[in-house]
Predict the structure.
Amino acid sequence: MSLKILVADDEPNIVISLEYLLKREGYTVVIARDGQEAIDAITREQPDLVLLDVMMPKKTGFEVCQEVRASEALQATKILMLTAKGRDTDVTKGLGLGADAYMTKPFSTRELVLKVAQMLGHDA
């Protein structure tokens, strides 16, 4: 059974490249283009991992992360914040709200693939 990853980002080019990259690695990929869509998709799809952008319409990645962590049914969901907001305060906030890891854009695709594999408990 293939592991499921939700890509939550409002930037079409990033969504396209992440979807391609992750599918090539054998993952099932679900897409959300804003924060509310992300919450709905996480609840419906129960992904193994969420790649979560911080700056999105409707709800920020920080708000999505907080909601997921507040829900008993979704607490086991792993969250990797993927964002251009790389200041120490943003990283601290993301991790403080319950994100499992934090990567800043631009990122290397190789680094991302390794991080995803590591978070899901297998080798890339």
In short: The longest helix spans residues 12-24. The mean pLDDT is 93.
